[in-house]
């Protein structure tokens, strides 16, 4: 098998709000969009992020009304402290302040208007 690209698809109530959040705070650009749909990407990201409006008929019936929940979109960054400072200055809601886990992961989290959680990660050197 060869995988040519990757994407995560998240079901939200307000597609434009999540799309704007990702573009404003993480530099993603809209690659495709339609009513109830937006696909965003970055040339240096390993995946695209797709937002689908909850209730769309293209979704399987059992998933149509479920919002994305419990999913964390993680971005590995080179300078976590600088990203935290930047996002704080931009007014992004920091929902988990910076911390370091015992296994060497430094992280913090922000949450978009639809409740999508983005975790920024930097690995501590041993």
From TrEMBL:
Name listed for the protein in its UniProt record: Glyoxalase/bleomycin resistance protein/dioxygenase superfamily protein
Domain VOC residues, every copy: 2-123
Keywords: Dioxygenase, Oxidoreductase
Gene Ontology molecular function: dioxygenase activity
Record's keyword annotation contains Repeat: no
Keyword Oxidoreductase on entry: yes
Superkingdom of the organism of origin: Bacteria
Annotated InterPro entries: Glyas_Bleomycin-R_OHBP_Dase (IPR029068), Glyas_Fos-R_dOase_dom (IPR004360), VOC_core (IPR037523)
